[in-house]
């Protein structure tokens, strides 16, 4: 939508963030319609779902109206949510550089965007201020302030870091993008401590008194739930790494209240995830080494077979440590599972005893369990010779009695499309045990298929294409149904 410009001046565009998801362009237009040079508005939406991305743009024909809109509309309410109104920065590098951006944490719950703006504006021109909140609008205790210049940001950090705002000591520092944050190692310097096993009646004042003898504390916070009750853990951030180290060594394991404290270096989420991942991998490798040669993979299991039945079946071979039948999300068996024995000798006995035996009307396939990477490597080695033959001359895989020059293009097409198959059978090592191998006899004629000019032969081939076996092998050789297009082509060429 557009409005005729009444003021001839430089055009200006504003960014409007933190919009309610139900706000439409019409409603955004109505919110800014008091400014005469308003030219257009836009609410940005997802290209696929068309849902609001919760931000938009408001364009003016007059820069003075844009300046006034920032003063009037910034931190105002629309649909019950506070809007952030600031200058639009089209250059992505300028937005992502972090220049003039300040990170603030340990904020009191009563501090909102407007209060944060007022707190920092004395140090320079504030372009944007934001307190991060939950879905219900409650503050998460940290936020961001964007200054016009880097000098203003440095001045705010120097003057406000460690100061007390509404009975809480805040931390103010330069904003660092997530991708640029360095995860510290165990031997790196640190100032922030994580403390748990706190009594629920421990206050921040008591915690301050307990940890302040070790050095200057920049910020301190006890984690609380939605009702304002303590969660039993807290964070203490010192000014110097040496002070944090001394506090950790002295207070870890000491009694405070009715419990012994756990004090350690506070870790970022990425670092915690990495540590947990490494621990999981170590346990996984240890388990693999422990069960190597003892864990069996079973497939071709009937859907009605339970883990209890498998345990009973294999218990005669030794002590079973675990049995698992793999099932889908509905609880239906996937037809395979695992049986793990206490040692490799028992597992070998189970393979030699039950490999190929009939169980619930199906022959069991048993093999030693392998990691996914090992299976992939083994399959590549197994199928490498066959792939090499397929990539080479096609005459090597044409059935006997058919010369390659009869099928210069058709055979290669059939091989690529999978029309020629080798007879399927059971893998090596399968025993009879009430299960006989399928037998198929293939009779191949020594007379190749030769394109015939005789009309009767062409008609006979036409009947063969209709799956009527009425032609003698002396005239046609072995009929291959997949060559129907080839027969039709030869009929056309010899007509």
TrEMBL record:
- Keyword flag Cytoplasm: yes
Q: Which domain of life is it from?
A: Eukaryota
Q: What is its main location?
A: cytoplasm
Q: Which gene encodes it?
A: LOC106771771
A Gene Ontology MF term for this entry?
RNA binding
Cross-referenced CDD domains, in alphabetical order?
Answer: RRM4_I_PABPs
Quote the function comment for this protein.
Binds the poly(A) tail of mRNA. Appears to be an important mediator of the multiple roles of the poly(A) tail in mRNA biogenesis, stability and translation.
Q: Which GO terms describe its cellular component?
A: cytoplasm; nucleus
Name assigned to this protein: Polyadenylate-binding protein 7
One Pfam family here? RRM_1
Task: Enumerate the PANTHER family for this protein.
Answer: RNA BINDING PROTEIN
Q: Which family does it belong to?
A: Belongs to the polyadenylate-binding protein type-1 family.
Q: Which residues form the RRM domain?
A: 12-90, 100-177, 191-268, 294-371
Give compartment(s). Answer: Cytoplasm; Nucleus
The keyword Repeat appears for this protein: yes
């Amino acid at each position: 939508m557009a409005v005729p410009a009444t003021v001839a001046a430089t055009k200006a565009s504003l960014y409007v963030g933190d919009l309610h998801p139900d706000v439409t362009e019409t409603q955004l237009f109505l919110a800014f319609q008091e400014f005469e040079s308003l030219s257009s508005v836009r609410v940005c939406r997802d290209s696929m779902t068309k849902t609001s991305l919760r931000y938009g743009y408001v364009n003016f024909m007059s820069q003075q109206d844009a300046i006034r809109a920032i003063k009037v509309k910034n931190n105002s309410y629309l649909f019950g949510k506070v809007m952030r109104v600031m200058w639009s920065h089209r250059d992505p590098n300028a937005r992502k550089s972090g220049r003039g951006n300040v990170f603030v944490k340990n904020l009191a719950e009563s501090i909102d965007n407007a209060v944060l703006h007022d707190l920092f504006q004395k140090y320079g021109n504030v372009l944007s201020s934001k307190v991060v909140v939950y879905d219900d609008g409650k503050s998460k205790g940290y936020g961001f302030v964007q200054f016009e210049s880097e000098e203003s940001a440095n001045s705010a950090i120097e003057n406000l870091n460690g100061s007390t705002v509404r009975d809480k000591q805040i931390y103010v520092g330069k904003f660092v993008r997530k991708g640029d944050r360095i995860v510290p190692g165990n031997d790196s310097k640190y100032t922030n401590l994580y403390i748990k096993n706190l009594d629920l009646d421990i206050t921040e004042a008591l915690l301050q008194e307990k940890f302040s003898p070790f050095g200057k504390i920049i910020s301190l916070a006890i984690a609380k739930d939605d009702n304002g009750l303590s969660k039993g853990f807290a964070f203490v951030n010192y000014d110097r790494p040496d002070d944090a180290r001394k506090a950790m060594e002295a207070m870890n394991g000491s009694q405070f209240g009715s419990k012994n404290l756990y004090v350690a270096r506070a870790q970022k989420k990425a670092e915690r995830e990495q540590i947990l991942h490494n621990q999981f991998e170590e346990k996984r490798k240890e388990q693999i080494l422990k069960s190597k040669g003892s864990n069996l993979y079973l497939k071709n299991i009937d859907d009605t077979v339970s883990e209890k039945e498998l345990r009973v079946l294999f218990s005669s071979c030794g002590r079973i440590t675990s049995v698992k039948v793999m099932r889908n999300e509905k609880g239906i068996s996937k037809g395979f599972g695992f049986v793990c024995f206490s040692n490799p000798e028992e597992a070998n006995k189970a393979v030699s005893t039950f490999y190929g035996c009939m169980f619930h009307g199906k022959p069991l396939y048993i093999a030693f369990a392998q990691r996914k990477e090992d299976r992939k490597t083994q399959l590549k080695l197994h199928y490498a010779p066959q792939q090499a033959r397929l990539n080479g001359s096609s005459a090597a895989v044409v059935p006997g009695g058919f010369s390659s020059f009869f099928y210069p293009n058709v055979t290669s097409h059939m091989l690529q499309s999978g029309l020629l198959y080798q007879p399927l059978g059971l893998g090596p090592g399968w025993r009879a045990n009430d299960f006989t191998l399928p037998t198929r006899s293939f009779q191949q004629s020594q007379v190749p298929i030769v394109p015939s000019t005789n009309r009767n032969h062409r008609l006979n081939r036409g009947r063969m294409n209709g799956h009527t076996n009425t032609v003698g092998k002396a005239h046609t050789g072995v009929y291959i149904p997949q060559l129907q297009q080839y027969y039709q082509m030869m009929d056309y060429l010899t007509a």
